[in-house]
Amino acid sequence: MNQFQPVSQQRLDIYRPIHKALRSFICDTMLRVGSLDCADAQETAQARAMATFYIGHMRHEDEFVHPAMEAHGPGSADAIEAEHGHHEAACHKIIALATQAEQAIGAGREVLVHQLYQHIALFLGETLEHMHVEETDHNAVLWKHYSDAQILAIDHAIVASLGEEEKGLAMRWMLPALSPSERVQLLQGMQAAVPPQVFAGMCAFFETLLAPADWRKLAAALEIDERLAA
Fold first, then answer.
1. Which residues does 129 contact at the CB level (< 8 Å), separation at least 6?
2. What single string gives the DSSP state of each residue in 148-198?
């Protein structure tokens, strides 16, 4: 197991926000599947959404982050990229089990739902260590060879490649998972990049993702009217 190493707070960490979202998404899915009512076939839909989203996330890393690493550190992304192949197979298994559980009836559904729960729990354990390696070893490569502006450009390229549905799902899990200061930093960048009326519309969605007290803090920090989403 990769040993814990302190991560510098002075450099841009593009893994942190999305990994917080993923940890939240996977954990919530595991808990929901573990306690779901097997009489409701649609309750396994979140498992499919989570696995599909994670496949997309891995492919974005393979396409945008790993080439940047390999350009200056040949072989630096090999181990994680190999794990991505294993994790993608695990995600397809989760999708298949969720679909089978929805289509099954009676006791057969309960068996499949429990198998689904076990696979998600195992997937969670594997991905927690996987993401830690990326946040430490991969960041070390990026920080050694790239400026924060260059790393931010990689992140912007990833975001630009996302469809609207994927962007919405990412924000659905990311914003509540971030700390208050991280939320402010994230939304300040958005606020500066779009017209005020567009940002107001975005805030209507953001408010639905947070507890009222968290939204009030965020609105105050961004110096926006809390009633934007009213």
1. 1, 2
2. HHHHHHHHHHHHHH--HHHHHHHHHHHHHHS-HHHHHHHHHHHHHHS-HHH
Cα radius of gyration rounded to whole Å, the chain:
19
- Summarised one tens digit per residue, pLDDT across range 52-68 is 999 999 999 999 999 99
pLDDT tens digits, residue range 111-157? Answer: 999 999 999 999 999 999 999 999 999 999 999 999 999 999 999 99
Contact present, 143 and 27 (Cβ < 8 Å): no
Closest by Cα among 163, 204, 174 to 28: 174
Rounded to 10 deg, the angle between the 164-177 and 15-35 helix axes is 90
Q: How far apart are CA 145 and CA 92, in angstroms?
A: 35
The C-alpha atoms of residue 26 and residue 116 are separated, in whole angstroms, by 12
